[in-house]
Amino acid sequence: MTKPKGLFRELQYDAPAGLVVFLVALPLCLGIALASGAPLFSGLIAGIIGGLVVGSISGSAGSVSGPAAGLSAIVLVALADLGSYEVFLLAVMLAGVLQLLLGVAKAGIIGYYFPSSVIKGMLAAIGLILILKQLPHIFGLDTEAMGDEALGLPNGKEIPIFQSLFESLHAIWLAVTNPEIGAVIIASVSLTILIVWDLAFLKKYKFFKLVPGALIAVLVATGLNQLFVAVAPHLALSGNHLVALPVANSAGEFLSFLTLPDFTAFTNFAMYKVAFTIAIVASLESLLSLEAADKLDPFKRNSPTNRELIAQGTGNIVSGLIGGLPVTAVIVRSSANINAGARTKMSAMLHGALLLICAIFIPNILNLIPLAGLAALLLLVGYKLTKISLVVEMFKQGTRQFLPFIVTILVIIVEDLLIGIGVGMVISIFFIIKDNYKTPYFFRKASESRDQVAVLELSEHVSFLNKGSIQLTLDELPANSKVIVDGTKTVQIDYDVQEVIYNFWNHAEERGITVTLKNIDFKGFKPSKGH
Fold this sequence. Notes:
Blueprint: H1 11-36, H2 40-57, E1 64-66, H3 69-82, H4 85-104, H5 116-138, H6 148-151, H7 166-177, H8 181-197, H9 206-210, H10 213-231, H11 251-256, H12 269-296, H13 305-322, E2 328-330, H14 331-339, H15 346-361, H16 363-366, H17 371-385, H18 388-396, H19 399-414, H20 417-438, E3 443-448, E4 451-457, E5 461-462, H21 467-475, E6 482-486, E7 492-493, H22 495-507, E8 514-518
Parallel strand pairs: 4-6, 5-7, 6-8
Antiparallel strand pairs: 1-2, 3-4
Helix pairs in contact: 1-2, 1-3, 1-10, 1-14, 1-15, 1-17, 2-13, 2-15, 3-5, 3-12, 4-12, 4-13, 5-7, 5-17, 5-19, 5-20, 8-10, 8-17, 10-17, 12-13, 12-14, 18-19, 19-20, 20-21, 21-22
């Protein structure tokens, strides 16, 4: 396959791909803003920034950035905690600065230090939260500002979303017991289209591969509601059941729709916590999506991870500055981009330009989209993140994979996303330390004449994590035995391990053990008498 020539010399491939990605991204930008509890216009801003700003800086040819479902749960709880969208925008900007610094510090390998079990648990928890928050919209409960009295809570008592499931479950109960029939019909039809569109046997037809099911579902939902308006007004959705984007009559008025951060909130500690959470999760999601996009790339190009962090950081600084949601690289849009034949990052930039044109010229048409249709789209996104098959797969991999996975999910659901990731990491590290303590990786026994000789062969790098296993192995050696400690292959031994071997060697005679050392240098240790 011929290597791509350059940004403007591959437009015959990039332009159609950019159009496909735009069609995929448009409903997702609106839907993710809905799931985040943020102004729907902020989703479009993030999509525009992801295409034009991140796309122009990133070194990836196929990756596409924009608002991500994986951040919607963070945004939702952050808005509740901070109490102001303008303060949240400052957190987005600060998150961008942190990502920029990570990129400059060449921390692009950060993703390799997070266990896959914890990352999968994080995404699964976000999927569950998406499902819980979209079910009310499926039944037509589209009012976010429900007071404490409506929820059956004591006046003034706040129950953050990650600290209690009560609010979500009660909202679902209210929606199910007081459904809007029109919303249920629209959501059901939309969900059916999305499920059918994903059937494997249909993917062999080019139409179903190129035309995104999300776009068809949203178009049908909009058309169905307009049909209700004409022939069945009692089923028609209006008001807060529809998308509500600002409509500009001039360029100046459009610019007035942009929201600036609250720069006076630098003393707000909660804002820093939100910024740190966004920076970590957005960086992880971007790096994982980047890796997945590189695997899909028919030209097998490797994208620079540090440059990607710089691009994402710049994108979040700009998005936060003008009122947008945080952005990340996203695999759904990236895979659609590559599968549509994109050759260079021009396709991602074109999709951003098309979103900008949409936001300026046709917001009145977008305002006809029922929220129930977007909720159906998000419900399926949530399910794909939380499939039963994923739980079964993780269970089959054993305790050391399943326990961090399931605990991460539970802690995120009942407490907080950052705390959930932290607890999952602690459990994963516990298993690593436990394995290093119990397993004598470098120990073997061999027969030498009639005597039994134990051989402790050290690897190239011996860290403090190996201290426990080496100590246990030496302690379990029988009295009056022989042991060889071989450091021939070793380049570096931590002081902790040297100390263990030295103490054993220094006191081996007391147990009648004969110790032979090979290429072991006790720097800083003073041998005792008899050695």
